[in-house]
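Lab meeting, action items carried over

1. Structure of the two-component assembly. Owner: GW. Status: complete.
Input record:
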Amino acid sequence: MPDKILDLSKPVPEDHEHVEHIKEASDYLRGTIVEGLNDPITGAIASDDTQLTKFHGSYMQDDRELRNERRHSKLEPAYSFMIRVRVPGGICSAEQYLDMDRIANTLANKTLKLTTRQAFQFHGVVKRNLKPLMQGIIRAKMDSIAACGDVNRNVMCNPNPYQSEVHQEVYDACCAISDHLTPNTSAYYEIWMDGEKVEGTPKFRTETGGDDEPIYTRRYLPRKFKIAVAIPPNNDVDIFANDIGLIAIEKDGNLEGFNVAVGGGMGMTHGMPETYPRLASVIGFASTDRIVEVCEAIMTIQRDYGCRTNRKHARFKYTIDDYGLEFIKDEIASRTGTALDETRDYSFDNNGDQYGWLKGTNGKWNLTLFIEGGRVKDTKSLKLMTALREIAEECGECDFRLTGNQNLMIGNISEADKENIEAKLKAYKIGEYGGLSGLRRNSIACVALPTCGLAMAESERYLPTLITKIEDICETVGLRDDDIVIRMTGCPNGCGRPYLGEIGFVGKAPGKYNLYLGAGFAGERLNKLYRENINETQILDELKPILESYAKEREEGERFGDFTIRQGYVKATVEGKDFHA
Amino acid sequence: MTIPLFSPGVGPLTPEQQQSLNQLLTTLSPEQSAWLCGYMAGVNASGAEPGVLPAAPSDSATEAVPVTVLYGSQTGNSEGIAGDLVEALKGKGVTAELKDMATYKTQNLKKEKQLCVVVSTHGEGDPPDTAMDLHAFLYGRRAPKMDGCSFAVLALGDTSYEHFCKTGQDFDTRLSELGATRLLDRVDCDVDYEEQAEAWIQEVAAKFSASPTSAAPAQAGGTAVPVAPQAAYSKKNPFSAPLLERIHLNGRGSAKDTLHLELSLEGSGLTYEAGDALGVCPVNDPELVAELVTALDANADEDVVTPKGVESFQEALSRTYEITTLTRPFLRAYAEASESKELQGILADATTLNAWMYGRDILDVLNTWPVKGLPTAEFLDMLRKLPPRLYSIASSLEAHPEEVHLTVGVTRYDAHGRSRKGVCSTFLAERVELDETIPVYIDANKNFKLPASVDTPIIMVGPGTGIAPFRAFVEQRELQGDGRNWLFFGDQHFDTDFLYQTEWQQWLSNGVLDRLHVAFSRDQNEKLYVQHRMMENAKDLYGWLEEGAHFYVCGDESRMAHDVHAALISIVEAQGGKSKEDAEAYVKQLQKDRRYQRDVY
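Predicted assembly:
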């Protein structure tokens, strides 16, 4: 038995990361956040507190394009806050959606970002608006606690529109996991609501009160932790990119339980081959009634054994590669009293979204809308935000579902509402998917510049333009309608899951990207570095011959990622550790 | 100018020196040559080496010159290496100081004798954010000569980028170009920098500990500073001060445009104290001059006689006369010349006249009641001389030797169908290029001065450009001692109008500024001003006054100063348990004791 790294009987060891000391001293995530919010001399909060506000769902950022200009003007950076709202399983009511829309338009930058983990994000929130905004979220019976930070993040579940009954059961399991693993600290309501409790907010469904963290302890996890649940054959939540991926196993329309996969994660650091993306390994099966305790057991293994001396080595994927899968399986068995069952058969065939109308098994309609870059906003030419607001106002019975691909599904639509919505979309010229190329409808871009502090290059603001240029090539060679998964992130940390793109771009410097090829279409295989640090002209020059060759020489039904491997453009990445090989 | 020039071979000077001196002599005004004469006399009297600007006195011949280790860090690697180097140097008995490029005072650069630089490179060969300003300074016009300084550079970078270690190379090249001596060749490190960095640290530590400068600096020469006679520059004979820097202090989206200007006083002999003002002689807007010439149907090149002598009409309108502000004498004279019944009617009633004059200028009058063939001389006779504008100085001379800084609100607005511009503020904002000169003089203000004792606490109320003298005050107090300082500042918006925000933050964090209260009037529904913040802190404010604090107000006279005055009385009344009359007497006494001073406009 290896020694546990977490030892609460001793002070945080000197060689543990600074964040570990901050957590320990924070009094369950309080720190000096309140003092910082009340300081009128700066739009920022104290540096250590920025680590703690993550646990509350907020990142402090600044407009990087204004940094130099403002410093020259003797002004501090244009600080603002990003706030992420948890939406377990991605589903909220029309009323809640309207609350999000109102908050975005009054307290944030008048846009909503739908994230790759089925959360809403507000951007550009100045400090004096932060508390009113948090109160708005909580009064909408939603929350942002554990949306970021070293805790279990928003639990994802594919918003499956066509298997309504199974989906309901899976969704319930997803919410149960989410509730069970939500931090217990009362700091959240104390800081943002002055202690007021709002009936119906997620935390208070299971609240035990008090400041003890029976699952997390006062030191929380070594690093973020992600769980996703998918119902095959659709892997739109990319379960293999999660610390725990659960694959729903049904029999005759009933949910039996889940295959359990562990140790997925995207992030790495340029120039550090000891960091790498890794896909989750399937290690067994657990029945539905056991799934919450199994998830807790896995998360607490990571809590106890995860590396706390180096945050670049602290994700569960490294714990697994350090200790081995057998150790994890044994620990699960000893912590829950029962070993996992044999893995059941399953198969995924895609990780994208199916756009347009679909009828569920309950007779209600579902509509999936493509939201470029996940950004809901009004522009001169496209009033997307207004259109969605009007739909939510007029069709109060339907619900709003965020997909893992930054898209939006409107669910539970009656026949009458369907007509109304169709008329609305036509009036606002939204959802004309005939015009979308196979590349664009399979694209993901993270936020990146100008607000994300990690970004080294553009992503959300640039990918649409780059896709237009690649589309020209596809058009010429006849690939316009072929689905190819294309993803871009502004840094190697992996928010947009770039290492699962059949074409993946990871920013290195302004205008320069690493180009990755060869991921599996259903999110079952990582890609591999093809070209390093290239600009747009080079990107187009590199992709052109490959796309031409794919158009001519692919086998029946062969996906682009598989083709690039068969043709030897890149070697297949079999496991995380050989990502850089 | 007819100062006789030196002929070659006359006197003790070398031919080069003679040539330089002759070049200078041809440019001197009588006042300047008189000053130079006095200066040289002062130099000789003090026994200092003539012609050499005295260096800072060195008290001890054994005191070591410290090694400055400058780092520019984005992720902390450079900072870590620089810190290790300082430790290594100290381990060898060498005095060393660790300095962040972000907060390094660029004026210190010319004093450096031993300099180590550790800096990383980012993106497309860019310096880290924290090093940008210093990098730009080194490559800018104000970069100093660095002869006599020895240096070493360690560059961090990533070979996967095109411009590997470019910033380090820049520093290395530039320091050398400026005359500094490279003590050892630059070392460029890739992402796995540790070993190379450690080797560099050892080598640098060895070289610097062996350097004679570190071991025993020998600083010969006199210690007396020559006393320059009072400068001859004055309102009548302003000094042409080169504009060194012009910064817009407001952020994007602000309704305001407030300038921070830095002017050079080098060679002028001008001195000032915190609280003094700078007189600036502006030049009128050439567009407005041209419009006036057209409206008068005059010839811009025509010679006219002005108090300055003979000059062209255009020159007279540009530099000699005020051509914007309407005066009553002008209107009366013009009413006579134009024989306009309407204008005479407006002049007859004070209320009508005030209302009409608001927002109008001389061109409006010419356009409304044109006079055909109005002689230029007659028109100029109606005008008054262009007065210099006074600005409260925003710098301490001790903190910025041979410089003077201003905080100027630029006036631009539309009225009566034309856009209007403040004469001097837009002159400073738009019509002077960097390095061009501005005629200036010092206007001493005895009634706005720091307390005699550095320990006396001060309370400063300076919203908007009223902040200017308080920047000078705090700079001065930082150099002087531990007296407590409390500032109230206000403007429209926190995000864009917090003038000198980062400087105040720095002074708060290093304890120079004890308290800072801000009021941004338009960030919430109700209007909040500095007097509201005073009232919120009434108890402490009264406590400071009772402890002898001086109270200063600078800025808008018509409303702010009045409201602040009223707030001060009500604070004294409530906190001192006094009647209104007694509170007024208390405040009056503060003024008599010169503990309540105002610089309002």
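2. GW to write a short summary for the group page. Key points so far: The radius of gyration of chain B is 29 Å. Chain B has five domains: 1-54, 67-209, 239-282+388-443, 286-382, 458-600.
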